[in-house]
Amino acid sequence: MRKPSEVAAIVATIDPDAYTASSYTSDYVNMEYWGALMAVVYAGTIGTSGTINAKLMQATSSTGAGAVTVAGKAITALTQAGTDSDKQAIINLQPDELNVAGGFKWVALKITSVVTSDYGGAIYGFFPRYGPASANDLASVDEIVA
User: Fold this and answer.
1) CATH number at residue 117
2) In this structure, is the dihedral angle defined by the CA atoms of residues 60, 134, 2 and 145, taken in order, positive or negative?
3) How far apart are CA 9 and CA 100, in angstroms?
């Protein structure tokens, strides 16, 4: 029987924290290794009158060269007024949704808040093209229990 960690992996994160009003970007993930990606935004307590926005970025290198937004891959803002604290949002991505012809194969999650708020995010890789998914986990993945 296959284990979930053989078909899905944590490949990028924005570690949960109380972030000031700013933008934070995860590691860039090479889409060539994955059949699909799923980004999850984890909202904690959203500050007074605050919003949290998130979108996927595509780039031509692992350092974010030429980064632009992936069309149609942004969440509806999570807001304090809309009682969105302690909720999640998911963005799915297939390889053919990137501008591969333009050299874009790297993907990151970018989260922006307008006031200090608690949040985090992660990108999960699914359907690895080479070996078990866990072979491509972030170095910060400390343990996989079978």
Assistant:
1) 2.60.120.1110
2) negative
3) 23
Under 8 Å CB-to-CB from 110, ≥6 apart: which residues? 23, 24, 25, 26, 54, 55, 56, 57
9, burial (CB in 10 Å: exposed 0-12, middle 13-18, buried 19+):
buried
Residue 12 corresponds to which tokens in the numbers above?
Answer: 């990028």
Number of domains in the chain: 1
State how far the Cα of 97 lies from the Cα of 2, in Å rounded to an integer. Answer: 28
Domain range enclosing 67: 9-130
Q: Is residue 107 part of a domain?
A: yes
47 inside domain: yes
Residue pLDDT tens, the chain, 146 long:
889 999 999 999 999 999 999 999 999 999 999 999 999 999 999 999 999 999 999 999 999 999 999 999 999 999 999 899 999 999 999 999 999 999 999 999 999 999 999 999 999 999 999 889 998 888 899 999 98
12 Cβ contact list (under 8 Å, min separation 6): 26, 27, 28, 29, 108, 109, 122, 123, 138
